[in-house]
């Protein structure tokens, strides 16, 4: 089953961002906290559920499994999906500029 290209969950988005550099579980939890400037703290249960789903969807792959820990990396499909989501989020921010009062109607 492949990723359908719909809006991503926050967890998926930050896992992909953190996997722009291959990482394993504990490091990955720290990387997610880092790339979200401390806003997102992901526990092991959530993380491994998301990793499993994203691996099935082809967004990430196992780079290494030494038996003790698994190192994950983003796939080209995952990077494309991440860039599409980034673009979608930027559009939402742009659409929200009306809240700043800069769009006065005459």
UniProtKB/TrEMBL annotation:
Pfam families given in the database record: PadR
Positions of the Transcription regulator PadR N-terminal domain: 20-83
Family annotation (InterPro entries): Metal_resp_DNA-bind_regulator, Tscrpt_reg_PadR_N, WH-like_DNA-bd_sf, WH_DNA-bd_sf
PANTHER family tied to this protein: PADR-FAMILY TRANSCRIPTIONAL REGULATOR
Protein name: PadR family transcriptional regulator
């Amino acid at each position: 089953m492949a990723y359908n290209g719909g809006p991503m969950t926050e967890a998926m988005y930050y896992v992909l961002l953190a996997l722009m550099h291959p990482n394993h579980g504990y490091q990955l939890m720290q990387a997610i906290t880092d790339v979200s400037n401390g806003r997102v703290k992901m526990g092991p249960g959530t993380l491994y559920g998301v990793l499993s789903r994203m691996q099935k969807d082809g967004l990430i792959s196992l780079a290494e499994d030494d038996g003790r820990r698994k190192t994950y990396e983003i796939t080209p499909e995952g990077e494309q999906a991440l860039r599409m989501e980034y673009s979608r989020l930027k559009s939402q921010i742009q659409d929200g500029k009306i809240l700043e009062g800069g769009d006065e109607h005459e």
